[in-house]
Fold each of these.
Amino acid sequence: MHRVRAFASLTAVLLVVPAGCSVAGATADGAAEQVVVGYQSKTINTVTAGTLLRAQGYFEKRLEDLGRETGKRYAVTWQDYDTGAPITAQMMAGKIDIGSMGDYPLLINAARGQQNAQTHTKLVAVTGYNVRGALNSVVVAPGSPVRSLADLKGRTVSTSVGSAGHGLLVQAARKAGVDPERDFKTENQQPQVGASALESGAVAALSQFVAWPGLLVHRGQARLLYDGGALGVPTLHGTVVRERFATDHGDVVRAFLRAQLDATKYLHEQPLAAARIVAEATGLPPEVVYLYNGANGVATFDLTLKPVLRAALEQDIPFLTSIGVLQKVDLAAFVDDSHLRAVYGADLDRDTASTVNPAAITGTDKACGRPVTDPALASEVWPAGGEATQPAATPTCALRAVRALGAAPRAVYVPDATTGTRWFADKSVWVRDPKAPEGERLKPFAAPSTAASYVDSHPGAAVVPYDEAVRSA
């Protein structure tokens, strides 16, 4: 339990706004213009607008460039929060200028801001997204008898009400024929509290957003019950600004977006180094950060406001309305790509139309002696003590590489055979299908339910232990 508490203690960091700067954008010392940025260091698919961007100093560098044009000086204050709700509260009070948060909090931010002409906010960019919804998951204790969402009937589930993790729980339960209002009790808890409750046995399951599911599974404190990718509902995080600040300081907003582009470019080109930077800044294991933010990671990092993501926000509104946290929101007035369009360049429309992960696994698979070309099968092995990862053309090739190492690797990442969700190989459910093509007969699944569905629809297929899969690869 002490490891969960140690992680939880890191989520309480709050940098106080300097004295004399009670309203964001005002000057603290009469010389430097203040810019206040709210972010969530542990929500690691916002790192390009938060943790990584801050650690690399990209925003400060861009403001220095801006200062040479305007003759002004700028000072940045960073505020780290557990969730998006306090960032929204501070934005409504005029005390945070730029923030980043998930899809549900973004909609709540928009609705609250639109209640007053002075507090309007704008969604100006995306940080990370998953087009199938795999950034949210449901986990249970390792020895839990719960094998499916139907098994949660009569039990208690922890989630953060109004979050995307809550939305996943409700929608997935309904899809499985379970009534989330009658069949199980929902406990409204912050992620770290829910993690402790799961470990103590106070709740039967935890439904949360990154990085909690991956962290608990990696540590052996949980196993995946439901892969959010099975729901097929896109989820995203984004960058939001106060409209008045953007009107008065559009050049600063554009400098921030240039810095976010800098951070995204670095993450795409140096995914392992970026994961290590985020791990160092947050205290999260680098293996967990890399699961989500690495090459072919669960999160795709792309600033563009894609139609599929706008549609997902539109589809989220009825759920948030039904649970009473949202009354009215004008999504068209909230989404604004004008600042991004001003800094992005000629490829904006092309990239807006694409959902291909720019951070691909590439190279030559040494275990199978072939190039890595199919992102739906591409896997990755991180040897113990290794400074680099090894690409694998398929999950089976990844298993062969593990066997060839002769020592337990630091981590192995493989995509779920049906949802594509990247997961830890040793925490996956493996199925042997003798009728599958050569080299693809060992198939990983992130959750038992997707493995069971595959076995039921493929005669002759059977679940095998991970160690056996490695030996027989």
Amino acid sequence: MCLGIPMQVERCHQLVADCQHAGQWQTVDLSLVGAVQPGDWLLVFMGAAREVLSAERAADILDALAALDAAMNGRFDPAIHLADLNQREPQLPPHLQAQLDAQRKTS
């Protein structure tokens, strides 16, 4: 299984960037995303950036990966790892909500 890992750009050299996450450094190919700046966040798969992320989106993905790691190691706690869902109802993505609303109108 291959997971994308958010990494933060430290240095750029045309279509290559030196990125880090949690003390791990990696040279990342930027061919698919183009030029970036130090401080930008990238979603990295197997040494290549696939997407430029906002800091908020990178944090969400890192939280999800921490929850996955906790679950795989017997430390999962929904109150900690799903804290963003504890005080609200889950919501459908907009495209699925539109489909559900359309179905309700025809029923």
